[in-house]
């Protein structure tokens, strides 16, 4: 397969048609390069708040509700594009109010045959829980697709190894992210690369990039696209299959062969995924040793 992962910049939108044209242009470009899996970043849907004007876009709570109100239409567009372009698309995540009272952070995976399903973020960052009041939601899902088994760990979720381990059957783990500072980008990238090492799989990181003075939520964003694997047989010695240019909008592409994942899991120089359970007895027997 060929994967396209986005470093995605937000725009001020003056009309719904402008948003439709933008998303289709991104999808069309990726597919023209042979991509059949496209990954957009966390909170990339926040640009939809601009459709309700500056007073809404500039207010955190009102912008959350505004974006949530647009999501049914957003899903219809992405379903159409996935079918038209015969590609799997992980749409940009959004705050979605689904009846639980507070919004969840939801990313939707669209299939070329029109089916779709979502993954909600599991663990909130301090900003999400203390300022946004975004709620966690579950469960973790493993999507069984024609491209292999796909899991999604939204941004901060990628920094937790037990969440990654729960997706140990995944061939691909998608990591849509939104990080304000370079340190945040590297925390998520290190998490994504660690999950690739532990599960001997491929992880795909997408980033929001650029500044948006009109938003209280996504005013500054740092990152780039990246595709990572285990630094072992069949993969680059750095584990980096592809990476973009920091804070530069556009797609990053990588070719991924599922047989390479199967081979490294069966006969890699190390077998992290197979040997995971050997940790249990070791951590249960930790003792305090005065020195």
Automatic annotation (TrEMBL):
Keywords: Hydrolase. CDD domains: nitrilase_Rim1_like. InterPro entries: Aliph_Amidase/BUP (IPR050345), C-N_Hydrolase (IPR003010), C-N_Hydrolase_sf (IPR036526). Gene3D superfamilies: Carbon-nitrogen hydrolase. Pfam families: CN_hydrolase. One of its GO terms (molecular function) is hydrolase activity, acting on carbon-nitrogen (but not peptide) bonds, in linear amides. It comes from the Bacteria. Residues 1-258 form the CN hydrolase domain. This is Putative amidohydrolase. It comes from Ruegeria conchae.
């Amino acid at each position: 397969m060929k994967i396209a992962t986005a470093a995605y910049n937000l725009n001020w939108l003056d009309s719904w048609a402008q948003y439709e044209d933008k998303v289709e242009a991104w999808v069309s470009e990726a597919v023209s390069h042979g991509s059949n899996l496209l990954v957009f970043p966390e909170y990339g849907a926040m640009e939809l708040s601009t459709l309700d004007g500056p007073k809404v876009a500039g207010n955190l709570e009102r912008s959350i509700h505004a974006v949530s109100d647009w999501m049914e239409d957003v899903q219809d567009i992405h379903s159409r594009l996935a079918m038209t372009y015969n590609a799997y698309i992980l749409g940009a995540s959004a705050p979605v109010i689904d009846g639980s009272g507070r919004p969840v952070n939801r990313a939707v995976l669209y299939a070329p045959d029109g089916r779709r399903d979502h993954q909600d973020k599991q663990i909130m960052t301090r900003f999400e829980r203390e300022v946004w009041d975004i709620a966690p939601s579950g469960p973790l899902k493993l999507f069984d697709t024609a491209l292999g088994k796909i899991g999604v760990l939204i941004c901060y979720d990628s920094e937790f190894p037990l969440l990654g381990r729960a997706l140990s059957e995944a061939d691909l783990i998608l990591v849509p992210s939104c990080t304000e500072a370079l340190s945040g980008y590297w925390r998520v990238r290190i998490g994504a690369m660690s999950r690739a090492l532990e599960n001997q799989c491929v992880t795909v990181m997408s980033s929001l990039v650029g500044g948006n003075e009109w938003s209280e939520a996504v005013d500054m964003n740092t990152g780039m696209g990246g595709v990572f694997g285990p630094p072992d047989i069949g993969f680059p010695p750095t584990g980096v299959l592809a990476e973009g240019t920091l804070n530069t909008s556009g797609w990053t592409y990588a070719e991924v062969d599922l047989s390479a994942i199967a081979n490294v899991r069966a006969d890699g120089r190390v077998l992290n995924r197979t040997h995971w359970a050997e940790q249990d007895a070791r951590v249960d027997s930790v003792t305090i040793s005065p020195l």
